[in-house]
Design a protein that fits this description.
It is a single chain. By secondary structure, this protein is mostly helical. It has one domain. Helix content is about 85%, strand content about 0%. It contains 2 helices and no strands. The two termini are about 20 Å apart. The mean pLDDT is about 75.
């Protein structure tokens, strides 16, 4: 993931979780990061497999 993508993901995460209590916010952040990583890996792997 390049710096621009990372910044974009952080911005999205921060915007979506403003005003949510801390434990839940951390949970959402983990879920979103996991989901994004899965998508990135799926695209990457499917590209390699052809």
């Amino acid at each position: 993931i390049d710096a621009r993508e990372k910044e974009l993901m952080e911005a999205v995460i921060n915007k979506k979780v403003i005003g949510v209590n801390l434990p839940y916010r951390d949970y959402i952040r983990r879920r979103m990061m996991t989901a994004m990583l899965e998508v990135i890996l799926k695209i990457h792997c499917s590209g390699e497999e052809g």
